[in-house]
Amino acid sequence: MTRQLILHIGLSKTGSSSIQRVLAGQRDALAAQGVFYPRTPGWENHQLLPASIVSDPNALCDVHPGTWEGMKPEARLALFREQFANEMNNLTADITRCVISAEQCGALLNVDADVVRLHDLLRRWFDPIRVVVYLRRQDKHAASAYTQNLRVGSLAPPALPAGGPEKLIQYDYGGLLDRWARAFGDAAMVTRIFERADLTGGDAVRDFLNIAGISLPALDDNPDRLANPSITRAGQELLRRVGRIYEAQGGDRPWRDSPAWRRFTACVTEAMPGSGWTPTRAEATAFMARFAATNEHARARFFPDRPTLFPENYSDLPESQPELSGDDVTAAALAGLMHEVTAGAKRQAEAAMAQFRLHRRLGEKGPVRSNLIRAVRFDPDLLAARLSLAEFFIEEGDLRQAREHAEAALRIAPNNPKAARLDRMARGERPGAGAKAQVA
Question: What is the pTM of this model?
Answer without folding.
Answer: 0.84
